[in-house]
Amino acid sequence: MATIITIDGPSGAGKGTISRMLAKKLRFHYLDSGALYRLLGLAAVRHSVDMANQQDLSTLAGHMDIDFEASGDELKVLLEGEDVSLELRTENTGALASQVASLPNVRAALLRRQQLFAKEPGLVADGRDMGTVVFPEAPLKIYLTASAEERAQRRYKELLAKGENVSLRALEEQVRSRDERDMSRDASPLIPAADAVQLDSSELSIQEVMDTVLNLVYLKGLATSVDH
Ligand code: C5P
């Protein structure tokens, strides 16, 4: 059976970076579950599906034509054959994702699609409910967090580096409102699984977080093949 490691937490805590590094190191597959919700948000806009129409959104969630393609160290994301990797990462798409993600039927429609990523030798699954709902049997669950200020700062630097002109104040506001929606929704709210190891990355470097996570992986005896 595939070994599953879940990494959940709020946006900007470093889940994506750590999950990708960990998957590479362990030679595991990687599930970016947020990308599925983001893709659904984009697909809904493209097909003019009303954001409040739960029925049509869940049908779209079950049938949308998506693909993930490795391209060097990057992961190319395709929607209906078109590369949407850049559009996928904008704050606007994140907000759309968080809206569709609050609908229980949408989450149910995406559940199986996510579980299909569990393949040998293992999977690192990154999201909000990986440890609580999608892979509740995972032998290692991490809940990675950081203060809202630190997460907005990181996002700010990331966007500036990409040449995007953004205001730190506006980003802080977006981070807080997305957290609020993700944590307070009824369907699979963002909460640490009871058996998750909680890690606050506010004061830690990426390497320090990675070392801590790898120690947990070794302690649990989950590393079969490690890429040095
Ligand atoms: O992780 P990312 O920022 O790409 O996620 C975008 C949005 O998708 C989140 O704000 C959240 O509302 C939703 N999401 C979710 N469950 C997941 C992954 C993402 O509800 N497992």
Question: Which helices and strands, and how do they pair?
Answer:
Layout: E1 3-8, H1 15-26, E2 29-32, H2 33-46, H3 54-63, E3 66-71, E4 74-79, E5 82-83, H4 85-88, H5 91-100, H6 104-115, E6 122-127, H7 130-134, E7 140-145, H8 148-161, H9 168-184, E8 197-200, H10 206-219
Helix pairs in contact: 1-10, 2-5, 3-6, 5-9, 8-9
This protein binds cytidine-5'-monophosphate (C5P).
Fraction of residues in H or I helices? 40-55%
Q: Name every ligand kind in the structure.
A: cytidine-5'-monophosphate
- CATH domain class name: Alpha Beta
The CATH architecture designation is 3-Layer(aba) Sandwich
- Tell me, rounded to a whole number, the average pLDDT: 93
Key phrases:
single chain; 228 residues; alpha/beta; Rossmann fold; five-stranded parallel β-sheet; three-stranded antiparallel β-sheet; 10 helices; 8 strands; 49% helix; binds cytidine-5'-monophosphate
Please characterize this protein's 3D structure:
The protein is of the alpha/beta class. The protein has a single domain (3-219), classed as P-loop containing nucleotide triphosphate hydrolases (Rossmann fold, 3-Layer(aba) Sandwich), CATH 3.40.50. 49% of the residues lie in helices and 18% in strands. It has ten helices and eight strands. The chain has helices spanning 15-26, 33-46, 54-63, 85-88, 91-100, 104-115, 130-134, 148-161, 168-184, 206-219, and strands spanning 3-8, 29-32, 66-71, 74-79, 82-83, 122-127, 140-145, 197-200. It has a five-stranded parallel beta sheet with strand order 2-6-1-7-8. Strand 3 and strand 4 (74-79) form a beta hairpin. Helix 8 packs across helix 9 (168-184). The longest helix is centred in the C-terminal third of the chain and has 17 residues, at 168-184. The chain starts with a strand and ends in a 9-residue tail after the last helix. Cytidine-5'-monophosphate is lined by residues 11, 33-34, 37-38, 94, 97-98, 101, 127-129, 178, 182.
